[in-house]
Design a protein that fits this description.
mainly alpha; membrane; 2 strands; 60% helix
């Protein structure tokens, strides 16, 4: 039986049910749709990202703002009506108060984003579009993820 991966802050009230091929196909189609939206909205464009960091255009700030708004609405809906396809209730635990970890994490993320010219989401989209230098970005994103896993117990949370 395959169990869903644990997502910090989100848990179900009973055991996970195995995923079906139909469910995995739905995730694949949603990912493909998301990739097309990233490309068409120019969220994966290095030039748009540089415009944002240089305060030359509102385009990316509008995209990020709409993503934040969507996240707020969907999290509120999950907290109120959330359940899995199997009927299990989804519980979203509140975040711990404090600002340091968010500021430090945001600075590290923003530094990587500014240096690479792309955030982690569009890396696979850009690889799918044939932008092969993104393999370097992917390699370092995976290295950073690995290092976080190694150092996790020593980091403040």
């Amino acid at each position: 039986m395959t169990r869903a991966p644990h997502i910090p802050g989100v848990h179900t009230e009973s055991a996970s049910v195995p995923r079906t091929n139909t469910g995995l196909l739905a995730y694949l189609l949603a990912g493909l749709f998301f990739g097309v939206v990233l490309v068409k909205s120019e969220a994966a464009s290095w030039y748009r990202i540089q415009e944002m960091f240089r305060f030359q255009s509102f385009h990316m700030y509008g995209l990020i703002g709409s993503a934040v708004l969507t996240g707020l609405v969907t999290t509120a809906l999950l907290r109120r009506f959330g359940h899995t396809r199997g009927g299990e209730r989804i519980c979203v635990t509140p975040k711990e108060p404090g600002w340091r970890r968010y500021v430090l994490g945001g600075l590290i993320f923003g530094l990587g984003w500014g240096l690479a010219g792309v955030c982690p989401g569009p890396v696979f989209v850009l690889l799918g579009a044939g932008i092969w230098p993104m393999l370097v970005v992917l390699a370092f994103a995976l290295l950073g993820t690995y290092l976080y896993g190694v150092l996790r117990e020593k980091l403040p949370h």
